Each structure stands twice: as C-alpha cells, then as structure tokens.
Amino acid sequence: MSDKPEKLITDDGLRLDGRRADEIRPMKIEVGVLSRADGSCYLEWGKNKILVGVFGPREAHPRRSQRADNAVIRYRYNMASFSVEDRARPGPSRRSIEISKVSREAFEPVIMTELFPKTAIDIFVEVLQADAGTRTAAINASSIALADAGIPMKGLITSCAFGKVDGQIVLDLNKEEDNYGEADFPVAMTQDGDITLLQMDGHLTPEEIKKGLELVKKGCKEILEIQRAVLRKKFETPVEEPEEETEEAEIEAVEAEPSLEYAPEAAVVEEIIEEAGEFEEELSQETVEACAVDEEASECEKLEEIIKEAEAEVIEAEAIEEVIETEIEEEAEEEALEAETEFEAAFEASYEEFAESVVTGKLCPEKTVSEKAELEPEIEEFAEEKPEIEEKPEIEEKPEIEEKPEIEAKPEIEEKPEIEEEAGIEKAASEEAFESKPEIEPEAESREKAVEAEEVPVEEECKGPWKVVKDPSESGSRGENYE
C-alpha cells in the first residue's frame, strides 16, 4: 500500500487527481461484450474495471427457491484475486456477501418481477480492478446490463458515493480518499430520485449528510445521462435511414412496373389515361401557384408546355383505345361470320345426304314412306288389341270345373268327335281372321311373333270329358262337357 499523502485536498481546492469537490471520475461504458449472456456491460470508472453479465429470466434451481408470484433476483458480487494490490482470497467473503445483498435490494423496486413467476434473474459482477467505489460502479454497470438483456424495469438505477476528506464533503471518492478519509457514504437511486441504497462508513453530521446528498443527486444525473447515451447508441435507429430506404423502395417499384409491351393493351391504355389526368390536375394546380408566387414568364411557359404535352398524351391514349376497340369489334364480327358459314355448309351437306338416301331408298329398303304411313294406323290398332290376348284370368279357374263329380258317372261320353269338329272349325276361322290381315313389315312380324310366343300359354292336352278353349269369347260355354 502507498503511504498516506500530506494533503488530500490542496489549498486551491483541487484533489489529488485534479478534480473539484463536486466532480466525478471519467466513465467509459461498453454494452454487449459477452456473447453467451442475455445482457452484459463493461464499465471503467476511474481505475475501477467492472464486468457484469445478466442471465434470465430462467427457471430457478433448486425449485424450493422459486416464488409463485414473482421472479427471484440473485446478485453475486465478487472481486478477482488480482483486482487489488495485495492478493485477495478467492471466493465469497463477508464483505462480498454483504455487498451482494444490498445491491440486490437496490434493484428489487424497479425490476418487474411479477411478470416472470417461478423464474430467476441472475446478475454476476466481477471486479477486475478495484479503485474505491466498486459497489457503486457495479450497480451502474448492472443497470445497463439488465437493460441490454431486455428485462422490464421502471427505470434505470444510478449510484454514487460522497465522503469527508480533510474536513470537506467531496463526491466520488478515489482510493486514497477512501483509505485515508474520514467517512464514506454510498447511495443508489432511481431516475425519479427515490433512494434504493443508503450506507455509511464513518461519522457525519446531519448538515454534512444533507450537503453530501445534494452532491450525490448531481453526480447521479450525470451518470444517468451517460447510461442513456450508451443505450441509445446501441438500440435507437437513426431517423434518416428509413426515409432513404423508402425512397429507394419507391425507385425500385417504379423500375419494376410492367412495360407496355408485356401488359394487356386495354389495361395499359386506361392506366395511361388515369395517370395523365392526375398529372394534368397536379400540374394545373402547380402552375396556378407558381404563377401567383413567381411572376417569371419563362417558368409559366414551361409549365404550359408540360400541360400541353400531357393533353396530347391523353388524346393519343384515347385514339389508341378507339383503335383497339374497333379492332376487337371487327375480329368478333369476322368470327361470327365464319361460324355462320361453317354452320350453313354443314347443314347443306347433311341435307344433301338425306335427300340422296331418300331417292336411292336407303332409308327404307323394303317399304316406301307412303306404305309406311298406311301401315302405321293398323300397327297401332294391333298393338292396342294385344292386352285383350294377354289378360286371360278365366282360364285359371279350372278348379271349378273339376268339382263336378256327375260328369264321370255319365257313360255317354263317346260323342267327343262332334266337339273336336267344332274346335277344328273355330281354329280354322281364327286362322283365316289372322291371315286376312294386311302384311306388316318383317321386323314388326318378328316382334309380334316373339310377343305371342311369350304371352300365349301352351295348350295342354285335355284329360277329361270337357273342352278347353283358348279365348272364352269364341265359344258360348267354358269347359262344358257334352253327353
């Protein structure tokens, strides 16, 4: 350790490092120095060098340390063994445990732990080089690291210390002032001025404490501006860049518009007319304003020429549109005429083929059309008479005839030849009736024969002394037996 100097404050009111009583040491801050941490910060404050890493919110282990309603803040302050002149013992000590506790309590009022229940937010502070005021430097660095990790907070925390040196209240003690001074008073507060950390080492009167707190507020405001500037530099995007990007995007969009060669002609013409009309309105307003503001005739003439050119473009576009419409109509008429001619040609060809087939007799090779017309009513009558032949319910009533037991007892059944002669006469009459009908086309005859073969039942041989007639209307009695 260095020997105690004779005076810590000179007669001119300057301190050993050349500062005034109300000045802080120079501060340097870097954000995002650790790639594996969620948020990190490296801070140099005078000769102090602090490295902070923030991890979380993440699941808290062991689980007994979890809280159901909010997150757990875990703050670990550690001084490297090479951070001081005399080698420090590695690992936690009573001093590091005490500083970890008070620093954690300084952040609890601003971190929104209720948003992350059953989780843990870990803050690791490593002091690489110590030069008095390490706890206040660690709090300032931790505040920036938490913001870099994106953890919701009500505001940034700033910390600074004041002390008593040679009977005077000074701000931000250095190593010699801390070692040989009369008192040390570290303070941490929010950006709204609420105090979250307050410690004292030494003896101070109430008036000295009030004076020292006024100096601390001034120092904390300066530190807060430095913190905001560092975070703004990393996270705030410049205002001019988006405008340049939008202009480039507009230029690309204009270049990417389809040309007249590839777009449909009608749509392109309509777009040209609309754009020309809008451009004409804009130019007319611009000309009025320009002529009213600027009386120079040359500018007005140029604007009038531009308007005339726009009008000429509109007229050309309208003419192109008319030409396109006429071409479309002509094409439609030509297509309609071609379709009509094709239809007429096909109709004539089909009509000629039909006439030839009629003349040559290919349509009806066996009968002419006139003969067909004569036979149609007779065919219809014959078709109407068919249901009478099909409906023969009376023939199935044979069981009534079988119920006559008296017939078998009569011995005079030998006179059957008369019955057979009458049946033969009736059959001959029915055959003559059928033969007397006019001749029908071969196709109709074949169909009628097939129907008769299906519908007319086969006559069974009579095994009794009665007569079975095909049609009950042809004879006066059904199954009568003759004696």
UniProtKB/TrEMBL annotation:
Q: Which UniProt keywords apply?
A: Coiled coil, Cytoplasm, Exonuclease, Exosome, Hydrolase, Nuclease
Q: Coiled coil among the record's keywords?
A: yes
> One of this protein's Pfam families, by short name?
RNase_PH_C
Q: Where is this region: Disordered?
A: 370-483
Q: Where in the cell?
A: Cytoplasm
Q: Which residues form a coiled coil?
A: 269-349
Question: What spans are recorded as compositionally biased (Polar residues)?
Answer: 474-483
Q: The Exoribonuclease phosphorolytic domain covers which part of the protein?
A: 23-152, 156-215
Where mainly located?
Answer: cytoplasm
Instruction: List GO molecular-function terms, semicolon-separated.
Output: 3'-5'-RNA exonuclease activity; RNA binding
Among SUPFAM superfamilies, the record links this protein to: Ribonuclease PH domain 2-like (SSF55666), Ribosomal protein S5 domain 2-like (SSF54211)
Under the heading InterPro entries, the entry gives: ExoRNase_PH_dom1 (IPR001247), ExoRNase_PH_dom2 (IPR015847), ExoRNase_PH_dom2_sf (IPR036345), PNPase/RNase_PH_dom_sf (IPR027408), Ribosomal_Su5_D2-typ_SF (IPR020568), RNase_PH (IPR050080), Rrp41 (IPR011807)
Locate the compositionally biased regions of type Basic and acidic residues. 384-416, 424-452, 460-473
Q: What class of enzyme is it?
A: hydrolase
What is said about its interaction partners and assembly?
A: Component of the archaeal exosome complex. Forms a hexameric ring-like arrangement composed of 3 Rrp41-Rrp42 heterodimers. The hexameric ring associates with a trimer of Rrp4 and/or Csl4 subunits.
The family classification in the record reads:
Belongs to the RNase PH family. Rrp41 subfamily.
Protein name per Swiss-Prot or TrEMBL: Exosome complex component Rrp41
